[in-house]
Amino acid sequence: MPRSKKGKRSSNKGGRNGVKGGSGASDDDLASDVLSHYSSASESASVLDDSTGAGEPLDEQTAQEETEDKLKQCIDNLMDKSAKTRLAALESLRGAFSSRLLCDFLTERRLTISDCLERSLRKGGGEEQAAAATVCAQLCVQLGGGDESEEGFKILRPVLSAIMIDGCASVAARQSCATALGMCCYVSAAEDGEDLVKSMSHLESVFTTSYPNCEGTLPTPKAGAPKLHSAALHAWALLVTLCPASRLTVLLDLHLLKLQACLESSDVNYRIAVGETIALLVELGRDIDREFEDSDMLCECLKGLATDGNKHRAKNDRRKQRSIFREVLHYIENEDFTEEKIHFGVEGIYIDSWMRRRVYDAFKEVLESGVRHHLQFNPLLRDIFGLGPPLILDSSVKASKISRFEKHLFNSAAFKARTKLRNKVRDKRADVM
């Protein structure tokens, strides 16, 4: 992957300030009591948050067996004649694949699951196709970047591409297939130049329909088209991060100016997708050529979007657009990326470049709320983000966690302490007034 640029880490120096009300020793004693409660709660905490009503920890082996039995039933239901049953099974698998690491279980059943997903994609309705495409992407992430994942991608790539470029298919299904095609190719075909080129070509055939015509006019988008174009563009941008320098130079010449024209799109989300993609392309262009120049016209266009105050646009849309385009403009002009840290467990990763943001956002879209769990335990994501093998925490680290009930007790005590302090301050202010 291309090297990431080092941004300036923005530190939050403004911690929580206590209210100084001249409360004397009694306030210190109160704060001490709260801290003492928190300390004792931490020392007595159970390692497992999930427990029975009697306070006994669950049998992990039994829980694992129950989970696998439910997954087996879901896989069986993928072959059911009822579309409703198949859709429910896909949604269950989607939640399980997002929240758990199931590589060993899935490796033995990957061909069966791939066949079932292919059947849902070919014969299911739009909602079933969209759900099946998402599960396809999650399956590739679960299997990792080895032969098993590549084998599944070989089966699923043709049907994902066919649905995505089919103008008669459901827009939601096409959008989901675009996202899945980008993720599956990124995970499975990084070393296969032919699959990479084919997948990018199919994605280009979708979002380039938003490009201006020969007269320089943007086409009027059809219903749902901006969402589809955004999904295809984001998936394409993810695959761009895998391209060698020679290929990247060609892509910059072909797409950068036309994407700049799309910044005038009537859809705010598509404008944002285009702006983020332009920033990524400029960053990659500067990586391969330090003399790479952006145009003055681009900067002027970005300044307009970063300060857009048109009243005919929704207030939230204007706020979201200005925030994103201020970041894009700041990077284009100063090569300074606004860094962000993602915390998970006792670890964290820095999102310090547009390339890393695109990769992280792609996994977040596929894995949803489970992305932090996968960052913590999935070898594929840990390798991509340079985290090394999953950490094995010793008992002293695990013991530092407290149960939800103990957290509730601490929060209640802290709330009471803050209330008493504030009441004393208010009383003293009232005396002064």
From TrEMBL:
Give all residue intervals belonging to the Interferon-related developmental regulator C-terminal domain: 378-430
UniProt record similarity statement? Belongs to the IFRD family.
Signal peptide start-end: none
Q: Where is the Interferon-related developmental regulator N-terminal domain?
A: 35-333
Q: What is this protein called?
A: Interferon-related developmental regulator 2
Q: Which domain of life, per UniProt?
A: Eukaryota
> Where along the chain is composition biased (Acidic residues)?
57-68
A Pfam family matched in the record:
IFRD
Gene this chain is encoded by: IFRD2
Ranges of biased composition (kind: Gly residues)? 15-24
